[in-house]
Amino acid sequence: MPLHDKTPLPEAMQGTALVLDDANSSTKKMYIESYGCAMNFADSEVVAAIMHKDGYATTNKMEDADLILVNTCAIRDNAEQRIHTRLREYNKHKKTNKNLKIGVMGCMAERLKETLIENQKVVDLVIGPDAYRDLPNLMNQVDDGQKAINVILSKEETYEEIEPVRLITNGVTALVSIMRGCDNMCTFCVVPFTRGRERSRNPQTIVNEVNDLLSKGYKEVTLLGQNVDSYLWAGGGLKKDAIAGLKNGTITTESTVNFAQLLEMVALTSLTLRVRFSTSHPKDITDEVLLTMAKYHNICKYLHLPVQSGSSRMLELMNRGYTAEWYLQRINKMREIMPDCAVSTDVISGFCTETEEDHQATLQLIDAVGYEYAYMFTYSERPGTLAERKLADDIAEDVKLRRLQEIITLQRGNALKRNMKDVGNTYEVLVEGVSKRSNDYLYGRNTYNKNIIFKRDNIKIGDYVHVRVKECTTATLLGEVV
Ligand code: SAH
Ligand code: SF4
Ligand code: F3S
């Protein structure tokens, strides 16, 4: 997802080595590079925790590493091509360091399985998203000179009691995984195949993790799942079994926790903790969730609600479970409950059979909603998905790209107009770090997830400050602390 996330963080960090470097000369060192969505970044932190226990420290210098792990994404073909390029680059390090081992983890590992080892000599280890507890064991095989693989998907695994080693060490914002897998079967999407069936994490372990972050000084958490509105804790196991239990009366709603309830539990851990979440699904987001957002000042007024297309015909072919009209009704409801809430989205251009009329409907919807931000892609056919099996990928690449460009141009213009409206306003900003552009500037976000840059002065990372916006670009606001 692009890291997709909708939380800005991972997108900006694609492929960067994570920041924590706790290696010394006596430990084995691993270098983890992460691609894809926020969930992959959170998983890398779980993997770091598992490997720490096994005696590995993390390093951000690839040339020092005994083990390179790459956490991969399979969402679009270009995401996978990027990894193949990286593998060739890691291979160069094998020439200078004969003991270096290379492991591929994450969604592309799950999708390609043993073919990754067969086709890429450089790869020593392939491990899928539900098998990370097996890493130390697999590393023993690798250290014995064998190739190792575990891509078994699980019905229960949520890594719930593992305390992640925070690799992105700004000490202010953290990712907290609340569920795994996806049961939705959108026809274009590979995630249900790479991440398996949906299961929710024990809410008490989520609250414990948040309390632990608070005690370490963290100020913001982002709760993560492919479809957070579908979160349902009913004692563990697959979501589909919980639903069946509710239907046949073996489970009662008193003994379950839904997403709105979880959100409230997390918001109540501390009213100075900012709470974000991603990703919401238009067919599943409830009024209860919107009302919970409105009720707590510390739940950020920002919703990532991927629409994919503005054409109900396309949405049906995509198996998204809603129409364009339904989507707009959800947006209206959100605005009724939270008039100021910011919203962002994901859009795919050129899905199977998309006509100019369908494309125009997407442009119209984008204009009607007025998104603060959008992640925009051309359709990439993924092997094994329903669309690949049942529908022809029949829109020419140049048409996909031209439509995408029209979407981007429209969205950029809208985003700039919206940012211009922010000029003159004052926002509470949580300071997250030093601006990439200049050491004299800090950056942070307001509740609406907008990046704001301002003069450093004596302000500390982790502070809340009030910033008046003076100027803007399509992506950033520039302001002064008041
Ligand atoms: N669970 C989230 C999205 C996860 S994937 C949701 O349902 O909204 C992130 C985004 O990647 C999707 O929203 C979609 O816009 C895009 N995407 C997924 N599969 C794709 C494909 N085959 N081609 C192009 N974009 C795709
Ligand atoms: Fe993919 Fe749809 Fe699940 Fe999102 S909800 S991860 S797009 S199958
Ligand atoms: Fe995320 Fe990419 Fe997997 S978007 S779930 S890392 S396919």
Describe the structure.
The protein has a six-stranded parallel beta sheet, sandwiched between helices. A five-stranded mixed beta barrel has the order 17-18-19-21-20. It has a three-stranded parallel beta sheet with strand order 7-10-13. The protein has 16 helices and 21 strands. Helix 10 packs parallel to helix 11 and helix 14 runs parallel beside helix 16. Among the domains are: 148 residues, Methylthiotransferase, N-terminal domain (Rossmann fold); 105 residues, Transcription Regulator spoIIAA; 56 residues, Nucleic acid-binding proteins (OB fold (Dihydrolipoamide Acetyltransferase, E2P), Beta Barrel), CATH 2.40.50.140. The longest helix is centred in the last third of the chain and has 26 residues. Helix 6 links the parallel strand 5 and strand 6. The site of FE3-S4 cluster has 15 residues, from helix 2 and helix 7.
